[in-house]
Amino acid sequence: MPSVFSRIIAGELPARFVWKDESCVVFLSNRPLRPGHALVVPRAEIDHWLDLDTTLLDHLFETAQAIGKAQMAGFKPARIGVMLAGLEVPHCHIHVVPIRGVHDLDFGNQDPNPDPAVMDGAAQTIRRELRKLGHPEVSD
């Protein structure tokens, strides 16, 4: 059975995509830790990041860095946090989160019912900043 992320990538479930390329996609977390919390997800359904080949792992982190630069410009947080936990969905993904402090990376602080207008605004902010940075992978 495909993971929820594979179903999102296939268009079976909705998501706010901000990036698409041949190897990965980026969409906003539907339970964000902070506005702009994005997930970098390989198209290949690989459960554990330790099982990724190094070329794909490098690409995922290069993508996460591009997303982080867009978040930094658009949200002006203290830092951009990056986390690989792998406990929620059995499909490797990198959390990229605009943070004010380490407490913002606590999954106990997820918003289970985020305001759709805030989510749409966060996606637009990331897309705008990615375009300014010259990334053609921006996805509407």
Explain this structure to me?
The chain has a 5-stranded antiparallel sheet. It has helices at residues 4-9, 54-75, 116-132; strands at 17-20, 24-28, 38-42, 79-83, 94-99. A hairpin with a 3-residue loop joins strand 1 (17-20) and strand 2. It contains 3 helices and 5 strands. The radius of gyration is 14 Å and the shape is globular. The mean pLDDT is 96.
Blueprint of the fold:
Elements: H1 4-9, E1 17-20, E2 24-28, E3 38-42, H2 54-75, E4 79-83, E5 94-99, H3 116-132
Antiparallel strand pairs: 1-2, 2-3, 3-5, 4-5
Helix pairs in contact: 2-3
Strand order of the largest sheet: 1-2-3-5-4
Counting DSSP H or I runs of 4 or more residues, the number of helices is 3
What's the mean pLDDT score?
96
- What structural category do the secondary elements indicate? alpha+beta
Distance between the terminal alpha carbons, to the nearest Å?
Answer: 27 Å
User: N-to-C SSE series?
Assistant: HEEEHEEH
Quick one: biggest sheet? 5 strands, antiparallel
The beta-strand count equals 5
| Cα shape | globular
What Rg, in angstroms, do the CA atoms define? 14 Å
Poorly predicted regions are none
Helix content: 25-40%
% residues in beta strands: 15-25%
